[in-house]
């Protein structure tokens, strides 16, 4: 595996993206969509893990319009404060447009097989859902996406496989919001919803307060199963 930084160019400007390349000369790509802490070690490690599994992983800096290069953790009150300030200033529509540009860039990369999936966490979980509704991604995965309930009307535009991981005790996605999501999506072909009893938000974030190794591993296995079937 090797890592590098690529530049994604859009009509609105350019931004950086962390890339982890697998050993294979050509591989399916996965766009890793950040939480509210920027392209930090957690996100880079996810890219590295995907590359170890044989995927070309890319994590774009989606906060570039506000502050390029954000790299903070969930370990201090000051960082949480900054993370929520970034979240509140973030333009979701512009973010999805930037993800579409990232998909175009990595799909054209000599190391890409042509297939591209997405996986997002928290804010990125919402953005991965919108990647499924608004882009040509070949498969998408959403981990505890915040705000998906406000966009379920877009589900009619989903044409490729989608997996959602929902933490049943998610403090940022209350039960009524979960009911809206599952009610709108559960009977649609190509969409799988997995719920995790007793789990809180970010149960798959290594080092986080609510990390649960067993359920994180279960969710990862389901994610990789989707990518294997949809991106191969």
Classification by helices and strands = alpha/beta
Strand content: 15-25%
**Shape, per Cα inertia axes:** globular
Distance between the termini: 19 Å
Biggest β-sheet: strands ordered side by side in the sheet:
1-2-4-3-5-6-7-8
Compute the gyration radius: what is it?
16 Å
Main pleated-sheet profile? 8 strands, mixed
Give the helix level as a range of percent. 25-40%
What is the CATH level 1 assignment?
Alpha Beta
Q: Any idea what the CATH superfamily is called?
A: Alpha/Beta hydrolase fold, catalytic domain
Q: Quick one: how many beta strands? A: 8
CATH topology: Rossmann fold
CATH architecture: 3-Layer(aba) Sandwich
Average pLDDT reading: 97
Q: What are the secondary-structure elements, in order, as H or E? A: EEEHEHHEHEEHEH
Number of domains: 1
Low-confidence blocks of residues: none
What is the number of helices? 6
General description of the model:
This protein has a single domain, classed as Alpha/Beta hydrolase fold, catalytic domain (Rossmann fold, 3-Layer(aba) Sandwich). It is 36% helix and 25% strand. It has helices at 41-52, 77-89, 92-107, 123-134, 175-185, 213-231; strands at residues 2-10, 13-21, 27-33, 56-60, 112-121, 139-143, 162-167, 191-196. The chain has an eight-stranded mixed sheet with strand order 1-2-4-3-5-6-7-8, with helices on both faces. The model has no long low-confidence stretch (mean pLDDT 97).
